[in-house]
Amino acid sequence: MRVLAFLVSLLLASNAAAQAYPNQPIKLISPFPPGGSVDIVARLIAEPLGAPLGARIVIDTRSGASGNIGMEAAARAAPDGYTLVLNTIPLVTNQSLFDKLPWDPIRDFAPIGMVATSPHILVVPNRMAAKSVDDLVRLARANPGKLTYASAGVATTFHLCTEMFKDATGTFILHVPYRGGGPAIADLLAGHVQLSFMTVLEASGNIKAGKLRALAVTSDKRVSALPDVPTLAESGLPGFNSISWIGLLAPAGTPKEIVDRIAADTRELVTRDDVKEKLVGLGAVPAGTTPAQFSTLIDNDRKRYAQIIRDRKITVN
Q1: Which of 32, 59, 238, 291 is deepest in the core (most CB within 10 A)?
Q2: Structural domain range at position 59
């Protein structure tokens, strides 16, 4: 009877905590530098996601080590619903790259749901002569090893995507990894590197400002934010497809009632006309999912990217 009474008291306490939640600000960790797609989405959703919860969501930028610093902080946070984290592909690739990763994508996190997907886009500085994918490929083939490409870091989607592009076009372009999308864009704009794949979210502002030239998108269809930009398939690389996703997680052990509540609010948020319009305008596709659906995606992508990293012998050293 004592055990039963204890279990009942725990259940009642858990329900009471969930009903009282939230009663203080919620921290949203962004594990990548300002200017990248995760940072952009974090700033876009923080205020409107906090409104139905009745709490202020404060963005905590903890960048570095391919997102590992922020993810470790999130993994070690109390599972009380007051720490959330937003992440993208490194959530599922870092486990294959770091021998002693201080966090585990499956064990240490409770998936809440995807927020958006974004195709990648191949861009060059506007001052560069290449006006099309064909121009770029001819230039790269004529100057093997002389062109450089920026990525947001080793084994990020942009790195993997460009290696796939090199294989598909038979070109040799040198990799210059950065600590996030923001620094990569800065050096691309300055002309220190000649090209990059990045998300449409990251690139659209500079494309519309005339600072970057968009050559092609990696989705199977053109994106509504940049309707004049062809797909890579239309540019002579049939079947080329690569997209990023951005999703919300909580530390493992966060009460299911809280996870489900935030998940439902997130799904509703990305269907709101004002939020949807902003996401679409930036080249993203709203993609609210259930925790179970996001969990399946994480597990599937973890296995898929592990195979790519293993086959291409990609390391962080």
Answers
A1: 32
A2: 2-117+244-311
- Count of domains observed in the chain: 2
The residues, any chain, with a CB within 8 Å of residue 211's CB and separated by 6 or more, are 125, 126, 189
Contact by Cβ (8 Å): 123, 194: no
Give the angle subtended at the CA of 47 by the CAs of 252 and 118, to the nearest 5°. 70
Phi, psi of 124 (to 5 degrees): -135, 160
Specify the DSSP class assigned to residue 237: -
Contact residues for 33 (Cβ-Cβ < 8 A; gap 6+): 39, 61, 63, 179, 180, 181, 182, 183
Q: Are residues 58 and 113 in the same domain?
A: yes
Largest CA distance in the chain: 81
pLDDT by 10-residue block (mean), the chain, 317 residues: 48 55 97 88 95 96 91 97 95 90 95 92 95 97 96 85 92 92 91 93 89 94 90 94 91 98 97 91 86 95 87 80
Q: Based on the domain organization, do 206 and 126 belong to the same domain?
A: yes
pLDDT computed for residue 8 by the predictor: 47
pLDDT value of position 59: 97
Same domain, 10 and 113: yes
Whether residues 110 and 45 fall in one domain: yes
The predicted pLDDT at position 70 comes to 97
